[in-house]
Amino acid sequence: MMPRWLPRSLRGRMLLVSSIATLVALAIAGAVIAGLLGRFVIEGLDRRLDAEVALLASTVDTDGRVDRARLAQRIGGFEVGRGWRWRIEGPDGAIGSNDFPRPAAGPPAPPAPPGAERPAPPLAGPQPWDGEADDGERLHARQLVIETRRGSVTLTAAAPRGVVRRPIVEALTPLLLALAGLGALLTIALLVQLRVALRPVRRLHDEVAAIRAGQLARVDEDQPDELRPLAAELNALAADNEAALATARGSAANLAHALKTPVAALALDLAGQSGPASQVARIDRTIRHHLARARTAAINRRSATPLLPAASDLADAIRRLHDGVAIAVAVPQGLAVAIDPQDLDELLGNLVDNAARHAAGRVSVSARGEGRMVHIEVADDGPGIPAADRARMTQPGTRLDQRGDGHGFGLSIVAELAALYGGALTLGEAPEGGLLVTLMLPAA
Amino acid sequence: MRILLVEDDRDLGPRIARALRDEHFAVDVATNGVDAQHLGETEQYDAAVLDLGLPDIDGIGVLKAWRAAGRELPVLVLTARDGWSDKVAGFKAGADDYVLKPFRVEELVMRLRALVRRAAGHGQPRLECGPLSFDAQTGAFELDGLALKLTAFEWRVLSQLMLRRNTVIERLDLLERVYEGDADVDSNSLEVIVGRLRKKIGATMIETVRGRGYRLACGG
């Protein structure tokens, strides 16, 4: 039983599972790349702020006094925009930007990606510091505390947090596009892979269909590892099936012998009594009909049976059965039909026997290839069949010939058997005036 | 005419034998392939009726063994196997005719007579010998255009002489084709039968060839 939530096709399932995996992988990759990008940007900013802090430090002397002239000369590039601030806080009080944020713990800097832990900067260097300006703007700052003879001096350089976000946002658009492209590429690769991987399954399906159609005896066992056991099982199944068909045929033949001999004994006892004798004849016809049906149920379209030997052997046999009838066989050497040898014997035997029974003295059997079919013509020089009756002759159960001696079944069983093989039977008038039967059978 | 009937069915075999004897044939019955093969190879028969589905050796095997041993007797296969492949196999094994069960006795007898006639080298069913004529199809004899009434033994002897008219038939050969295998054969019985026949068709037609056998002389 298949879980309901899974797609019904293997292709769908594989597509579903690997799409989810691809999406998750792309999301993780996106997050990691965005994080790394943020860290690079912050590191760049930190370097700039550290340089500013270093400049500020260079204006403080060993007594903690700020050299204002030097400071004024050096801080020219500090306040380049809103949020860019600086501050020196020492024993002489604080100087710096007016709206410097209150010292408050801001959000921490983006975490370093796992595995990329760097040793913490020595306490001597500038430390990160995040805070919020009075106008609510979030700031990122670097702070250095230097010790002087008169006490510690705190130097701080800050930048708006926005300068960190902007390059990330700008980089994220091409990043997402690239990831989407990657996703599309992976999906295409997946589809191609599914197609390639599932091709043997489709081929196996085609081969099984060919077996059912009778065009193949067994599937190719040269399969990928996963399919090889299945192919072997399928072949075993096909072999069992064939054995069962053979058994069915054998049982039919056994049934024939088992029933016909007592019927023959009964017929001898009843000879001369027309009523019971006709019942016996009816029993015989019924047995014969159903045995023929049983035989035709076990058709085998895979055969390639040469036509000439079959026709010659049958002609030899039928010459002996019908004394005085000349049977001419004109079949090209090498012509073969896709009919089981026994069924071909039935088809031709019934037709030629029928022709010989009605012939005045001559029967001719000829054949020619016609595209994918073989046309076999059996003609006699007998009285023929009126055009009006011809169609009826090939209907099941019809037998216009009531004086026959019980050999064969006439044309209806031939028509039925030929149709099972994808062939056909047509009746016409022979040049000699008798019946012309054209049997079309698939060529081998 | 002596026939070997090979039929394993206990109901059908005796019925066919009786029907053939009613038509004056001498009939030996074999109910298995081994007996059939042995009888066919050692006894003289004018024809054999052979069932294919035998308990030990298949009928086709029996037929092939006969042919391999050089036995040329005409063989009529009588079987329930109605497939054309079976018929072809039967003829290829050396059968001369093939009749399907169930069958009409008249047809079986007619086909047997035709087989024997053709084996004796006669294309036409009607044989003439002086005032005597024989319809090999119906088995009826006529003398000067009038039906001739014969007993089974008389018919067997005269039909043999007729089929091989103008040639000497060895006495032993004639005996073998007149009596069934298990019959008590009185050494004088053949002479008795020939004597009765001479009374019916005239004393001169059947010649005794001293030390050899008999000859049906048709004259000029």
Keywords:
heterodimer, A: alpha+beta, five-stranded antiparallel sheet, five-stranded mixed sheet, 12 strands, B: Rossmann fold, Arc Repressor Mutant, subunit A, five-stranded parallel sheet, 8 helices, HATPase_dom (chain A)
Notes on the protein architecture:
- The complex is a heterodimer of chains A (444) and B (220).
- Chain A is an alpha+beta fold.
- Chain A folds into 3 domains: 159 residues, no CATH class; 86 residues; 142 residues, Histidine kinase-like ATPase, C-terminal domain (Heat Shock Protein 90, 2-Layer Sandwich), CATH 3.30.565.
- Chain A contains 9 helices and 12 strands.
- In chain A, a hairpin with a 5-residue loop joins β3 and β4.
- In chain B, β11 and β12 form a beta hairpin.
- Chain B folds into 2 domains: 118 residues, Response regulator (Rossmann fold), CATH 3.40.50; 91 residues, Orthogonal Bundle (Arc Repressor Mutant, subunit A).
- The two termini of chain B are 27 Å apart.
- Chains A and B meet through α4, α5, α6 and α7 of A and α1, α4, β5 and α5 of B.
Describe the SSE topology:
The complex is a heterodimer of chains A (444) and B (220).
Chain A: H1 10-58, H2 68-74, E1 85-90, E2 93-96, E3 127-132, E4 138-148, E5 151-160, H3 162-212, H4 228-270, H5 274-297, E6 305-306, H6 307-321, E7 326-330, E8 336-337, H7 341-358, E9 362-370, E10 373-380, H8 387-393, H9 411-420, E11 424-429, E12 435-442
Parallel strand pairs in A: 7-9
Antiparallel strand pairs in A: 1-2, 1-5, 3-4, 4-5, 6-8, 9-10, 10-12, 11-12
Helix pairs in contact in A: 1-3, 4-5, 5-9, 6-7, 7-9
Chain B: E1 2-6, H1 12-22, E2 26-30, H2 33-42, E3 47-50, H3 59-68, E4 75-79, H4 84-93, E5 97-100, H5 105-119, E6 126-129, E7 132-135, E8 140-143, E9 146-147, H6 152-163, E10 168-170, H7 171-178, H8 189-201, E11 206-209, E12 213-216
Parallel strand pairs in B: 1-2, 1-3, 3-4, 4-5
Antiparallel strand pairs in B: 6-7, 7-8, 8-9, 10-12, 11-12
Main location (chain A): membrane
Protein name (chain A): histidine kinase
GO cellular component, one term (chain A): plasma membrane
